[in-house]
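Researcher: Final request for today, and then I'll write up notes for the group meeting. The sequence and the SMILES for guanosine-5'-triphosphate follow.
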Amino acid sequence: MEISNIELELSPEPELALLNDTSQINTLENEAIYIFREVAAQFEKPVLLFSGGKDSITLVRLAQKAFWPAKIPFPLMHIDTGHNFPETIAFRDKLVAELGLELIVRNVQDSIDQGKVKEESGRYSSRNSLQTTTLLDAIEEFKFDACIGGARRDEEKARAKERIFSVRDDFGQWDERNQRPELFDMLNGQIELGQNVRVFPISNWTELDVWSYIKEEEMEIPSIYFAHKRKIFLRDGLIWSHSDYVYQEKDEEVLEEMVRFRTVGDMSCTAAVYSEATDIDAVVQEIRDSTISERGARIDDKRSEAAMEKRKQQGYF
Amino acid sequence: MEVLKIATAGSVDDGKSTLIGRLLYDTKSLTTDKLQAIEKTSKQKGYDYLDFSLATDGLVAEREQGITIDVAHIYFSTQKKSYIIADTPGHVEYTRNMVTGASTSQAAIILIDARKGVIEQTNRHFFINNLLRIKEVVVAINKMDLVDFSEERYNEIKADFQELMGKRDYEDQRITFIPVSALKGDNVVHASEHTAWYKGATLLEHLEGLDLEAVSNMGTPRFPVQYVIRPKTDDFHDFRGFAGKVYGGELSVGDTVVALPSQTKSKIKDIYFYDKKYKKASRRSSVTITLEDEINVSRGDMLVKVGDVPTIGKQFTATVSWMDSQKLTAGNKYIVQHGVNKVLAKVSSIDHKIAPDYSGIDTETVSLGMNDIAQVSFRLNKPIFYDTFKNHRTNGSFILIDTQTNSTVGAGFITTP
Ligand SMILES: Nc1nc2c(ncn2[C@@H]2O[C@H](COP(=O)(O)OP(=O)(O)OP(=O)(O)O)[C@@H](O)[C@H]2O)c(=O)[nH]1
Ligand SMILES: [Mg+2]
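Model: Predicted protein-guanosine-5'-triphosphate complex:
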């Protein structure tokens, strides 16, 4: 495998004057690759939590880069609420097949059937927070000691407090007031049996960084991230998907509009935005111009100011 | 675009969070939904003005008490630069938080409450930025609105601070004074109407103007091996790549390198970043290196250029910043994590402690408590390959891990072998 562009020098380091947008991405990319390698070296059973969303797709690409020409040395795991967008699931299966990766799926439906969690009902019902139980059970089942996630600090104010290696106790819980200091780029992954570490390799990326990276790398992403015609209804100023999985009042009229999703979770907790952006260039431009944060379209965060912090304490992603 | 990482320092209530919130607001980085949340909460609390600290104080307990408890990382960008600012708490574990924030930053903002002026804590803030060799320091004299934007008061504080500067041991540090009101927005992003006497730049103008090449510390190349890549596939049957990050300088194909600790020599055969080969890898790039010869290299080993070998030793002295409530005493054992290398270490002696107000040193020391900074000597069970912190920011620093709790309990900056 002879490569033609041997003349190239690698991207300059973060502290040096960088000339364009892509160099910033490069800084973050180098940082993320370093983190992935630390995970593989410091832990016995890591797993990459894969949702099919843009952040976890980005993680997969970074992991590929970290270990090439070897395969990614850990499996992916998806906690499936059963209420995902079908486009996301189809994408997930295709990606895993193409890269020859191992995928573990654990279903929230099973946790419901086992009586471990109770399905919510009513206007704002969602399976989003039920995922925590399924996730913690799966960690225990496989004895995972490191779970790699795509959370970013710019997403939400409680996430801004996250470490890159974030230790969880035997109950999977986050003790936000007693976190290990992280100095320079030294990552302390020492844990006791039963504990696990949540790892966030793209902590320092912003939403725009992720989109710019997807563009630069020409990565494939699920179609729902691009503008498409969809049956929707309006509630509380947000655009909800019309679907069997989403509770809808009789007087909430079904409309058909051009929309896209900025973040992809469970159908019941992810709101759409009006958009005409049908390709990656248009999406990047739209994010640049946006005056609403990504999480502004997350119905799960609207529950209260501290919604994320509470979920995190319980062991959420 | 350039990325500038900044740490803040200041005592409780000096206005760090408010200043960062103000920067976000005036650069229009707060999205509509976040701004609405701040407006709503400020109103609920019965304030006459918007409380911008709500933009960064993300935990329930923080918002209830109006203080910062844990470091938050805040992101915003302008046309020129991307900024990552660490909002550090001014409370209890202040030293630990400041050292942590400063360790990943290239610039620092020290806040001073204009009513209080230079206080004992200010000594500490300045000392730590000096210890960590932060090149670019901004002293933001805040709450100018509460001292009628007095030039006299500003000059008084500036003079007091300049007195501290005489004591520093890092001469390259650049210090800039700016009178601000974080709450009202004076001289943060927009020039103030109330400080006609101040001719300098606003805080943001100053940050925008920083030359990142000039603010970063350089060093010679060190390549700690993080992970050995052995694909064992048909296509890459004999591939043995050493994955790691280049610290300082650059490495090139053909360079003769020495592997430590074995001291075996070889030449760099290829440098890969993902599936592409490159001629050179510059500082901070995460690459995979293959060597001409089959030599034994594993995680924790280090590749360096021939003729530029760091100290290889089983003992050293370091300035230690202690971050735990359990005390450090002579004879205690810890894990020293130096880059990706972990070794067992024993404290041979605490040589002297630095007085909390940095007025001098205290030689009668039995133990170190939370926030203490001291000169400590260690003995290791295995040699490590280190430089002094002065010469190499990454290869001259380490963390201490408690063998019982696994917590990170201290940070060290190597001073002498
Ligand atoms: N008048 C006036 N008040 C200010 C100014 N800056 C901050 N304050 C007020 O000072 C108080 C403390 O501000 P914070 O931003 O929370 O202080 P902090 O430095 O982040 O404090 P800790 O994080 O707890 O260490 C708040 O009530 C602010 O509104 C200023 O420039 N002028
Ligand atoms: Mg604060």
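Model: The radius of gyration of chain A is 20 Å. Helices of chain A lie at 21-42, 54-67, 86-99, 108-113, 131-142, 207-216, 280-289, 307-314.
Researcher: Thanks, that's everything.
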